[in-house]
Amino acid sequence: MSTQQKQIHLAAHFPGVNNTTVWSDPEAGSHIAFDSFARFARTAERARFDFLFLAEGLRLREQGGRIYDLDVVGRPDTFTVLAALAAVTDRIGLAGTINSTFNEPYEVARQFASLDHLSAGRAAWNVVTSWDAFTGENFRRGGFLEQGDRYTRAEQFLRTAQELFDSWRGDEVAADRSTGRFLTGPGAGAFRHEDEHFAIEGRFNVPRSPQGRPVVFQAGDSDDGREFAARSADAIFSRHAELAAGQAFYRDVKGRLARYGRAPEELLILPAATFVLGDTDDEAQDAAREVRRAQVSGQTAIKLLEQVWNRDLSAYDPEGPLPDVDPDPGEHTLARGRASVRMVRDPLAVAREYRELAAAEHLSIRDLVIRTSARQTFIGSPATVADAIDAYVQADASDGFILVPHVTPGGLDAFADTVVPLLQERGVFRTEYAGTTLRDHLGLPPRP
Predict the structure, then answer these.
(1) Please, are residues 185 and 95 in contact by the beta-carbon 8 Å criterion?
(2) How far are the Cα atoms of 20, 67, 345, 372 from residue 308, in angstroms, in the given order?
(3) Strand 400-403 relative to strand 93-99: parallel, antiparallel, unpaired?
(4) Which amino acids are annotated as binding site for FMN, given as ranges?
(5) 181 or 178, greater pLDDT
(6) Quick one: which residues bind FMN (predicted)?
(7) pTM score of the predicted model
């Protein structure tokens, strides 16, 4: 076995209710009951995954003034779920998305430091921003920031939180961890920070946690987002799951690290990936087609097309041809809520492309939406999927994947039972955890 083989990083995303999830599948369970989260986390830990990831939804999506049909369950609070999962798992990392636009550094730092203590060093923070005034209506700080400003706030938010984490030094703490009593030096927890967004001063009341700081993830794909990740993140979530695009993204982001004095291995690149398994490749392809049609019902197809057309298309037959009217290129008001809205810069051009594709392949509205919306990343037998994942990582298109099953909570089981053992046999994925913290799992240097 070549010593040059990269080790693959795998994580699992609990997706909630969206157009990836087949919530109508008989095997699908609750997306809010704790038993679902616990089963999912235990499966990922049994498979020796690096971490479990929870996204964040701060407002239900709306379309045409109504709650979007795939989002009616909403999302429970990320910190609450991760803290509960810390009690029923031992090693798997616990990563959560927390918004830097609508929160405050002291509050978030305190929550993550607490989670890192409760989990014995398994906490991770996906730092995101939001421009969405619709979501911002839930908060005092509505959607008032331009893109450049929101990344400035995010960087200052993260820097402020890190100052709070670092306000406790090891030599200032003599701890009896069985009682939680701490004897501290005169400067322990003291902080003062002032910039254009924050002016805070006081003492941080959670002593330094096992990782020192939580692992920091970032998900932006813009140039600002990539630069933010190169400066500040330990891992970046990528949208590029195709080989050539993945390699280009990998080269670009890794190439930015040197200017900040960082080595390539200090930032992991992890695309989201879906999968459909079968006993044979043909069986998996048949199953994948069924999954896509279950993900995109006729009603969902109309809703997704409305996000491009910016018009009410409810009168159209989803099994019929595309609308004969053009999109409304005005300000997007039909669909509200960032997670549900495609960022379509030129809807008229997109409509032309869609019409040409539909005419060439004789596609209905539903067929077209299935054809053009998110596709499965890995389809095949366990051996085929293991081959594809390994080839992608060894080709420097990523450092691993965040897997998004289409059924929760049991959709990860088959992957854990069939694909993971094949990767372990190749020597590219761990058979046991080598350390106890998430930084250990990811091969990241410890924080001082």
Answers:
(1) no
(2) 19, 18, 10, 12
(3) unpaired
(4) 97, 151, 222
(5) 181
(6) 97, 151, 222
(7) 0.90
- Please check whether residue 1 lies inside any domain of the structure: no
User: Is the residue at 285 inside a domain?
Assistant: no
Q: Do 9 and 400 form a contact (C-beta atoms < 8 A)?
A: yes
How do residues 364-399 score in pLDDT, each as one tens digit? 999 999 999 877 899 999 999 999 999 999 999 999
State which of 372, 393, 417 marks the end of a domain.
372
Determine contact, residues 236/226, Cβ cutoff 8 Å.
yes
Same domain, 394 and 333: no
Chain segment 20-30, per-residue pLDDT in tens: 888 888 898 98
- How many other C-beta atoms can be found within 10 angstroms of the C-beta atom of residue 435? 13
Residue 50 CA to its chain's centroid (Å): 14
- Half-sphere exposure in the Cβ direction for 186 (13 Å, CA): 0
Residue 203 and residue 191 in contact, taking contact as beta carbons nearer than 8 Å:
yes
Binding-site residue positions: 97, 151, 222
* Full domain range(s) for residue 342: 297-372
CB 148 within 8 A of CB 224: yes
pLDDT digits (tens, 9 = 90+) for 190-240: 888 887 878 888 899 999 899 999 999 998 788 888 998 999 899 999 888
Give me the number of domains the chain comprises. 2
Residue given tokens 């009896």 in the structure block: 176
User: Do 337 and 389 have their domain in common?
Assistant: no
Q: Could you give the CA distance from residue 221 to residue 250 in angstroms, rounded to a whole number?
A: 12
Are 315 and 299 in contact by the 8 Å Cβ rule? The answer is no
**Residue 29, both tokens:** 């369970």
Q: What is the rounded distance in angstroms from the CA atom of residue 439 to the CA atom of residue 447?
A: 9
Indicate the burial class of 115 (C-beta count within 10 angstroms; 0-12, 13-18, 19 or more): buried
What's the CA gap between 207 and 114, in Å, rounded? Answer: 9
Angle at 121 between CA 75 and CA 112, to 5 degrees: 45
**173 occurs within a structural domain:** yes
Residues 91 and 181 in one domain: yes
Q: What is the average per-residue pLDDT within 288-307?
A: 92
**Helix, strand, or coil (residue 277):** strand
On whether both 217 and 120 belong to a single domain, the answer is yes
Share of the chain above pLDDT 70, in %: 88
Q: Identify whether residues 206 and 338 lie together within a single domain.
A: no
Tell me the Ramachandran region of residue 74: left when phi exceeds 0, alpha when psi lies from -120 to 50, beta otherwise.
Answer: left
